[in-house]
Design a protein that fits this description.
By secondary structure, this protein is mainly alpha-helical. The chain is 56% helix and 4% strand.
Length: 328
């Protein structure tokens, strides 16, 4: 490690000391940077680890590198042509969104190496990502959404918790990671507001409906004995949604909860917590909300990200047109 520190601060050519640093170390330095400096979510970082390992295996495969040498593979001679070959190997096995993410990950990784003088140049800088097809989000019509809300048992603490989860997801349109990250003091009952920590550790305030507030209030009252018994305080924070052991609920658990009630209610659509976010946005736009307001509530940086919901709402516009226009 001392030798590595010396190399990173000497005047030798980058290609010389790239071979001396294990790729696993480079990957972890990059992941730490994306977590601590860029504020990337745990989910994104997990995907990036998979992407980097996949590229590493590709390099090892085409160069027929011995197992004992794989940790110290040189990156200094990775060229745009080689990256294009890698992209070609992905087509047919992965969808365009996955390919685009992997190229984006490599671009960020090599940019990190270049800025830290670990390697000279970025071979992915001018590689274009594949054009994405139009993505139409899955969402529930109003009647199916109401059926889903009827699923949880109102007589048990866990049933009340599940109802509160569904109500908050539909009422606020927050991401599932944002939902499980909520703490007790993030809900302002008087102001009908929720403080949300979103992507990149960006905080935003979103409104919450009265029905959702009632559900949260009923749940927290019913879960108070369990919370007290388990001492559900993590890092000085009291998680809002807890499991039956008093620990903070995970995103995977919330996904299982949503699927359970979708099955129970006989919904044919394959839905997830993110589907409720799509449902929130679509129903707001159908109800006359402006796109910019929906953008703020969803926490989208770009308005173009929110505009995908206009394609969904077009069905509603056509329905109104067909009913109202005299020359339809």
């Amino acid at each position: 490690m001392l030798f590595l520190f010396f190399c990173l601060n000497c005047n030798r050519k980058p290609e010389y000391y790239v071979k001396l640093m294990p790729l696993a170390d480079l990957f972890e330095r990059f992941i730490d940077y994306m977590r601590n400096q860029r504020g990337y979510s745990a989910h994104t970082l997990r995907n990036y680890r998979v992407d980097l390992r996949h590229f590493h295996d590709f390099l090892a495969g085409i160069r027929d590198i011995r197992e004992e040498d794989k940790a110290y593979m040189e990156l200094g001679d990775v060229s745009p042509i080689l990256v294009r070959d890698y992209m070609g190997s992905l087509f047919g096995s992965y969808n365009r969104r996955t390919i685009a993410r992997r190229i984006s990950c490599l671009r960020s990784f090599f940019n990190f190496l270049d800025k830290n003088d670990i390697i000279g140049g970025n071979p992915v800088a001018d590689i274009s990502t594949p054009k994405q097809g139009k993505y139409i989000p899955s969402y529930l019509p109003v009647d199916e959404m109401f059926r889903l809300l009827e699923g949880p048992d109102r007589e048990t603490p866990l049933g009340l918790r599940d109802l509160a989860i569904i109500e908050v997801l539909y009422s606020c349109g927050i991401r599932v990671a944002e939902l499980v990250g909520l703490n007790m003091n993030d809900i302002d009952f008087a102001g009908r507001l929720v403080k949300v920590l979103g992507k990149g550790n960006k905080e935003r305030i979103v409104p919450i409906g009265r029905k959702a507030l009632d559900a949260v209030g009923n749940y927290t009252a019913a879960a108070a004995p369990l919370r007290k018994k388990a001492g559900a305080v993590q890092g000085g924070k009291v998680p809002l949604f807890i499991n039956n052991r008093g620990g903070r609920l995970t995103t995977r658990s919330v996904g299982a909860i949503i699927k359970k009630y979708a099955l129970k209610c006989g919904l044919l659509t394959d839905i997830s917590p993110h589907s409720l976010r799509h449902t929130f946005a679509t129903h707001l736009l159908d109800g006359g909300a402006d796109l910019r307001s929906v953008q703020e509530m969803l926490g989208h940086v770009s308005l173009s990200t929110t505009q995908k919901y206009t394609h969904v709402s077009m069905d509603r516009l056509m329905e109104v047109y067909d009913k109202a226009h005299p020359r339809r």
